[in-house]
Each structure stands twice: as C-alpha cells, then as structure tokens.
Amino acid sequence: MKVAIYARVSLDEQNKDSRQFQDPENQLVPLREFCKSFKYEVVKEYIDKMSGANPARPDFRKMMADGLQRRFSGIVVWKLDRFSREGVIPTMSYIQRLKDRGIWLKSMTESWLDTSQEGITEIVLAIMSWAASEERKKISERTKAGIARKRAKGKWKGGRPKKRLLPEQEAIVLKLQKEGKSPLQISRIIKVSRYTLEKFLEVKNENKKRF
C-alpha cells in the first residue's frame, strides 16, 4: 500500500533566539520504521518547518493536493497536532476532504486516530464536530459577556451583533474559493449562512480594490 509521511517541526525551544528549528529526522526515522512494520510503501515525505496554525504550509498544501489526486492511499503522521493546529473546524475539513477521496490518516503515537479502520473516521469527526460546537458556544458566551459590559457602561445601543467568520473559517473559505466552489457550496461546507459568507467576500473584494 502506498502512503505518504508528513512531518512538521517548530522552532527549537532552546534555540528560539537563533530561529533554529527542531530536526525533522526525529519524527521521520520512527515514522519510516512504523510504515515498514505495516509493509507500507512510502512514496513521498512532506516536511514543513513552521507553525501548524499556518494554513499556507507549502508541503502540507502539496500533500493535500497529491492526496486529492489519489497519489497514495494514506498519510502517516507522528501526532494529530503535527498534521494541523489550525483549530477544530479546518482540521475536521481536511480529514473529511481526504476521506471523500478514499485517503486515510493515521497517527503513529495516537492509536485512536486511524481513519483506515471502519467507523473510526465517523467517530473522530463526531468528536471534532462536538469540539467545534463547544468552540462556537464559547465565542457566543464571550460575545454576550461583551454586550453585557457595554450595557453596564451605557455604550450598547441595542441590535444584534454582526455575525462574522472565525479566522479558521476565513482560511477555509479562501481555499475553497480558489478551488472553484460556489458561495452556496462553501456556506454548506463551513455551516454558515450564505448572507454572512457573502458579506465576508464583499469586504475582502473591497480591500483588494483599495490596494
């Protein structure tokens, strides 16, 4: 079975001042052995040296593109946070998109993360979906708390607060837009109203015109 290995390293905690990154071989060596034990054929290794919260990681984007073209059957990582730290919603979207193309994701150090197993993908996505829901609730609670503070200070003039996309959702929108998805399709994927999405795109287009 053909697989890809994805390794991502961050700045070395002991050498942050010199901008020195951790050695990716610390992940790659055991990952290669792990794949060998399962008799996987590693067709490519993708390596990024930057934060997992960055959606523009070059090798990650190449890997996703190759995966969606089915150039391998699965992706093996050290841990889920090596795969992505963009937040629950974007990470869930990546896993779902891979699943839709028949590509699985497996973590070497987290036995629960193995979407090649029947039913595991649904469980993982259900948990992540719940976490995303909790994340949205916290944002709503913070918004309400902010309104309450403004009311107490006499600064709240009433009306409903404007709905905005989360930073993670904005990154997904721009990515899906480049892939040619329509506003209706995008709004369904990220589960926001079409009105909220179109307002976001409208502001983005206005900012582009200014520059």
TrEMBL record:
PROSITE patterns: RECOMBINASES_3 (PS51736). InterPro entries: Resolv_N, Resolvase-like_N_sf, SSR_resolvase. It holds the Pfam family Resolvase. Signal peptide: none annotated. SUPFAM superfamilies: Resolvase-like. Gene3D superfamilies: Resolvase, N-terminal catalytic domain. Transmembrane segments: none annotated. Keywords: DNA recombination, DNA-binding. GO terms for molecular function: DNA binding; DNA strand exchange activity. It comes from marine sediment metagenome. Residues 2-154 form the Resolvase/invertase-type recombinase catalytic domain. This is Resolvase/invertase-type recombinase catalytic domain-containing protein. CDD domains: Ser_Recombinase.
